[in-house]
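dumping this here so i dont lose it
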């Protein structure tokens, strides 16, 4: 039988959940976790998603339908699967240009309805399609008929509520009325969702393989940043002698380089990973997660004298800068200065 503590401490949450027999009682326990823990688990699952992610969504969808009935992820104030789907949509929205994101298009739309010129990301469309398949497999037709309304209320309504625009007192009331009207028309939402799922580009078989490669590229860029940056570590020069009052040495191409302590730990994580004979898909995601953990610890508990440039480096890691710019950050010969941490 699975336990919450085992899930929390599992290296890979998706693998753990797929191996376990998940009962309605355990699913309810997951949904009743405090908000912060649910968000943390959802982020980790989505961040580490690979080839088996659609299988997990299929499994959790069936359990959610069995547990909550046709209300699906809208049953109760919180739902475990809803958190995962919300995080997936958020991450894919962040990759889009602002004029293609849901919230700006919704607010600009003159109608009190979801914007016609908005399209689901191909992965989101594929995952929603997977859930529709589950809803149509042995369940009453109301399960599929209510699905668009459930997703709209629990996922997209959440995007609107969390948006910066909704924080404005002048806009909040108008947005609230507009949202309430938009999510109240179940029939219209069903057509809206089905059209966008049907019109989405075919989901490529190589999607998760390419995603894995982007994580590898991000890790490579983090390592390159460590190597090329001129780190401020309390260096004191007296005559021909240099004294260091902080940081530790790492070996780069047979030479020693002084870097901050947590930066050295991150570098060690990467070089240890690189020494593995044949790392698998989940190991690269775990490495990236571990790197972010070190960055978070460094910001939460900074060592004495931590420089702003070092904080900026940790912040970029936590904000997925290297991941989101993995293709743009390919370093060409002679362009190393772009990565210097000054």
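and the seq i came up w/
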């Amino acid at each position: 039988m699975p336990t919450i503590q085992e899930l929390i401490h599992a290296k890979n949450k998706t693998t753990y959940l797929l191996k376990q027999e998940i009962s309605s009682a355990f699913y309810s326990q997951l949904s009743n976790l405090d908000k912060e823990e649910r968000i943390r688990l959802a982020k980790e699952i989505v961040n580490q998603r690979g080839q088996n992610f659609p299988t997990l969504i299929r499994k959790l969808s069936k359990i959610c339908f069995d547990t909550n009935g046709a209300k699906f992820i809208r049953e109760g104030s919180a739902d475990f699967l809803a958190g995962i789907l919300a995080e997936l949509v958020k991450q894919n929205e962040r990759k889009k240009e602002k004029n293609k994101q849901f919230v700006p298009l919704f607010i600009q739309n003159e109608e009190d309805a979801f914007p016609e010129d908005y399209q689901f990301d191909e992965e989101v469309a594929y995952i929603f399609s997977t859930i529709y398949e589950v809803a149509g497999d042995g369940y009453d037709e109301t399960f599929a008929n209510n699905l668009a309304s459930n997703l709209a209320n629990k996922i997209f309504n959440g995007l609107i509520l969390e948006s910066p625009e909704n924080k404005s007192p002048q806009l909040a009331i108008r947005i609230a009325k507009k949202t309430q009207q938009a999510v109240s028309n179940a029939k219209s939402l069903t057509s809206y969702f089905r059209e966008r799922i049907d019109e989405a580009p075919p989901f490529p078989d190589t999607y998760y393989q390419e995603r894995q490669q982007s994580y590898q590229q991000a890790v490579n860029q983090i390592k390159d940043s460590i190597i090329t940056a001129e780190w401020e570590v309390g260096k004191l020069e007296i005559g021909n002698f240099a004294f260091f009052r902080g940081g530790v040495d790492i070996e780069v191409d047979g030479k020693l380089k002084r870097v901050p302590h947590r930066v050295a730990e991150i570098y060690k994580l990467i070089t240890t990973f690189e020494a593995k004979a044949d790392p698998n898909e989940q190991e690269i995601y775990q490495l990236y997660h571990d790197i972010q953990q070190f960055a978070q610890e460094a910001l939460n508990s900074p060592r004495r004298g931590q420089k702003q440039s070092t904080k900026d480096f940790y912040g970029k890691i936590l904000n997925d800068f290297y991941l989101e710019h993995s293709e743009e950050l390919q370093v060409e010969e002679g362009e190393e200065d772009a990565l210097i941490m000054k």
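The beta strands are 235-238, 241-244, 248-252, 255-259.
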